[in-house]
Amino acid sequence: MTYIPIELRRQVIERAGNCCEYCLLSQDDYPFAFHVEHIIAEKHRGQTVGENLCLSCPTCNTYKGSDISSVDEQTEIVTPLFHPRKHQWNDHFYLEGVIIKPRSPEGRVTVFLLRLNDSERIPGRALLLGLGRYPC
Ligand SMILES: [Zn+2]
User: Fold this and answer.
1) E strand or H helix at 122, and its extent?
2) Ligand 1 centroid vs 58 CA: distance in angstroms?
3) What is the reported pLDDT for 2?
């Protein structure tokens, strides 16, 4: 794991508004520190620069790992994951209550690979929605 300078980490967290850039959960509502993650993993030549870093909750980052794409179930084409620096969340996803629905092939593979709607993730989101704390 590459060292990410503290000032760069601070900038990534601030830019993200302290939110997971995939599932929109706030770090304030999560029991563990969020990860500053390489969108394009270092093993795929991703650099440790702001344009390749995002804030991710540990759950999203664990499922994403070093992956950068998956096979879209509709097109059966290898499709890049949602890229928080190059894509707008609302262009690729929308919320139906607390369910993250894809709008694009990139959204579909990201919902699938990051298991954004796994059953264990939904109750917490629903609770936070009820408290006006989701999405962050
Ligand atoms: Zn997340």
Assistant:
1) helix 122-130
2) 7
3) 83
Condensed to tens digits (0 to 9), the pLDDT of residues 46-83 reads 999 999 999 999 999 999 999 999 999 999 999 999 99
Ligand 1 centre and the CA of 26: distance in Å?
9
Domain segments of the chain as ranges? 6-130
Q: What percent of the chain has pLDDT over 90?
A: 97
Question: Which tokens is 58 given?
Answer: 């540990």
pLDDT above 80 (res 5): yes
Give the Å distance between the CA of 71 and the centre of ligand 1: 21
Q: How far is the CA of 62 from the centre of ligand 1 (A)?
A: 9
Distance from Cα 125 to the centre of ligand 1, integer Å: 11
83 HSE (CA, 13 A, CB side): 14
Structural tokens at position 117: 């709607």
